[in-house]
Amino acid sequence: MKILNALLSAAAAVSLFAVSASAQTYPERTITMVVPFSAGGPTDTVARLVAESMSKDLGQQIIVENVGGAGGTLGAGRVAQAEPDGYTLLLHHIGMATSATLYRKLAYDTLNAFEYVGLVTEVPMTIVARKDFEPTDLKSLIEHVKANKDTVTVANAGIGAASHLCGMMLMSAIETPLTTVPYKGTGPAMTDLLGGQVDIMCDQTTNTTKQIQGGTIKAYAVTSPERLKIFPDLPTAEEAGLSGFQVGIWHGVYAPKGTPAEVTDRLSISLQKALKDENVVARFGELGTEPSSDADATPAALKAKLESEIARWKPVIETAGQYAD
Predict the structure, then answer these.
(1) Angle made by CA atoms 30, 34, 36, in degrees to the nearest 5
(2) DSSP one-letter code for 292
(3) Does the N-terminal or the C-terminal CB of the chain have fewer CB atoms within 10 Å?
(4) How far apart are CA 134 and CA 132, in angstroms?
(5) CB-count exposure of residue 218 (10 Å: 0-12, 13-18, 19+)
(6) Under 8 Å between Cβ of 117 and 294
(7) How far is the C-alpha of 95 from the C-alpha of 71, rounded, in Å?
(8) What is the pLDDT of residue 321?
(9) What Rg, from alpha-carbon coordinates, does the chain have?
């Protein structure tokens, strides 16, 4: 028995040494960053900017792989089951928190299936409509929607998408259920809004900025606490009369459970450097958002954010009674 215990202890020591040595030389090959939504969407845009900058710092390429479907849970599930070696990462948005309630049967434990790297950014939302929609401001929009609730349509990029969550929050805030029109991605939803097939949408600035600037859609408000530098004349929802309506679509980077702390710490440091990259800062600014601070781009901050957001959205989703399964 003593010999067996000694052999087991030696094997454990060798395994621990191997993990430690691997972490010290990490990364040695290409890293895959899974984005659980379609290419060209707002989360994909954020991921590609961050991945490019982190690649330079790490000395290895980070390839972005789009694994869409089921409100982001397919991509998240793939990463949850991946080898915990730091070579498969997940960049997900607020849907990481809401999926814990939206999906009553998940293939993974949202809080415990991942290691945390850090927060990336929190993107404001915009309340927008087709360019020829009659209301001229948010107050008249709410009045119009309430008076025509059976005919007004709200577009979203699918259950669990940022636009779905914001739209659900908007309907809750004005206490008026509307006809929702889900699409398979942000692109098709925006295309139909531009074409006038649907009336309104609530989506990230990363997806609406160009259209607002080009006058191809009508903007009513931003959901941030303060006005955005990129839209100084666009009021906040609070200013426009929708009290307490603040929604930000935060993004974070995760790794599979069991990834060595040395690796997640290295990734966190690289993320912090990427978020100071002049190109990243400038491009985020053009998209109406800002990089997370060093204090937020940490494992502890992301874990705390996820926990608090699961608690925040749970009653909203349960009250709406809209589940994905």
Answers:
(1) 170
(2) P
(3) N
(4) 6
(5) buried
(6) no
(7) 7
(8) 80
(9) 21
pTM of the predicted protein model: 0.83
- Per the listing, tokens 């960049």 go with 91
- Owner of token pair 């020591």: 13
Tokens (6 digits) for 258: 């069991």
Residues 6+ apart with CB under 8 A from 277: 53
Which pairing describes strands 200-204 and 153-156: parallel, antiparallel, or unpaired? Answer: parallel
Q: 97: which residues sit within 8 A by CB, 6+ positions away?
A: 110, 306, 309, 310, 312, 313
Which residue in the block uniquely carries the two structure tokens 């600037």? Answer: 213
> In degrees to the nearest 10, what's the CA dihedral of 216, 287, 138, 312?
140
Q: How far is CA 152 from CA 32, 94, 160, 240, in A?
A: 41, 26, 21, 20
Q: Are 104 and 323 in contact (CB under 8 A)?
A: yes
Phi, psi of 109 (to 5 degrees): -90, 110
Neighbour count for residue 254 (Cβ, 10 Å): 28
User: Which residue in 251, 248, 212, 256 sits closest to 230, CA to CA?
Assistant: 212
pLDDT, tens digit, for every residue of 31-87? Answer: 999 999 989 888 999 999 999 999 999 999 999 999 988 889 999 999 999 999 999
CA distance 51 to 288: 19
Cis peptide before 27 (omega within 30 of 0): yes
Which whole number is the average pLDDT over 231-259? 94
Q: What is the pLDDT of residue 23?
A: 67
